[in-house]
């Protein structure tokens, strides 16, 4: 199984990327999954514009390696910080740039990140408005990493031991659940006509 992890923070460095790297390590070491981590640090992608739909060679060249990685993935982990109660604009832009042939009908685990007690809004926003046309399938399990500065640090002295242990265990289990969905949905996509010419966009 191959899982792509998207780190949705534009900051460099960011706590979201720290969490994304921990998730990647978990998937690789515990689940023997192949992974690709794509970070939105420093905004590597321009904002969507109309020429994307007009076969603009610049867009095609820029997106080709990303499309290839997404298409060959069986599932996704979307890591999003909560910024002013929202998902960062760069992550929403990412969802404008990817399509159903790359992520459609593949499972995704949402991991949201907050330096305090937030983190619920990005979950709600992603579930409400990032899947309609690309048909990414958010699984019911999710992880909200609260007080993120105190957990998942490489130096154990920087961690709150109880919270750190809890999040490591919870992320490990959530990754296992995600991989279960990834295995289950793969034959489904082969069996059912999931890309229907008549119904290119969701309702
Ligand atoms: C522009 C901005 C807005 C933020 N707004 C919120 C917020 O609404 N709720 C919250 O819990 N944390 C908020 N934070 C703090 C983040 O939770 C914190 O920066 C955390 O480390 C995750 O962001 P990061 O991945 O960019 O580091 C905000 C941070 C930034 C940079």
Q: Strand share of the residues?
A: 15-25%
Q: Percentage of helical residues?
A: 40-55%
Radius of gyration: 17 Å
Query: Which small-molecule ligands are present, each listed once?
Result: flavin mononucleotide
Largest sheet: 5 strands, parallel
Which class of secondary structure composition applies to the elements? Answer: alpha/beta
Basic shape: globular
Question: Would you report the number of β strands?
Answer: 5
Average pLDDT over all residues: 98
Distance between the termini: 30 Å
Order of helices and strands: EHEHEHHEHEH
Q: Strand order of the main beta sheet, please?
A: 2-1-3-4-5
Question: Which stretches are low in confidence, meaning pLDDT under 50 for 5 or more residues running?
Answer: none
Q: Given the structure, what is the number of helices?
A: 6
Please write out the topology.
Layout: E1 2-7, H1 15-29, E2 34-39, H2 57-71, E3 75-81, H3 89-97, H4 100-103, E4 107-113, H5 120-129, E5 137-145, H6 161-191
Parallel strand pairs: 1-2, 1-3, 3-4, 4-5
Flavin mononucleotide (FMN) binds next to helix 1.
Provide structural commentary.
It is a single chain. This protein is α/β, with parallel strands linked by helices and 203 residues long. The chain is built from 6 helices and 5 strands, in the order E-H-E-H-E-H-H-E-H-E-H. A 5-stranded parallel beta sheet has the order 2-1-3-4-5, with helices on both faces.
């Amino acid at each position: 199984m191959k899982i792509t992890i998207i780190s949705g923070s534009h900051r460099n460095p960011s706590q979201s990327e720290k969490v994304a790297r921990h998730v990647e390590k978990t998937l690789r070491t515990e689940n023997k999954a192949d992974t690709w981590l794509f970070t939105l640090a420093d905004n590597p992608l321009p904002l969507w514009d109309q020429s994307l739909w007009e076969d603009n060679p610049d867009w095609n060249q820029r997106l080709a390696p990303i499309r290839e990685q997404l298409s060959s993935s069986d599932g996704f982990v979307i890591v999003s910080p909560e910024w002013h109660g929202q998902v960062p604009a760069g992550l929403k832009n990412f969802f404008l740039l990817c399509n159903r042939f790359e992520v459609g009908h593949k499972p995704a685990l949402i991991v949201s990140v907050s330096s305090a007690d937030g983190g619920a809004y990005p979950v709600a926003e992603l579930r409400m408005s990032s899947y309609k046309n690309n048909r990414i399938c958010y699984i019911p399990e999710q992880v909200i990493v609260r007080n993120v500065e105190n957990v998942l640090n490489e130096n154990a002295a920087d961690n709150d031991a109880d919270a750190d242990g809890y999040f490591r265990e919870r992320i490990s289990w959530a990754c296992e659940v995600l991989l279960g969905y990834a295995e289950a949905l793969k034959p489904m996509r082969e069996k059912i006509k999931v890309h229907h010419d008549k119904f290119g966009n969701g309702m």
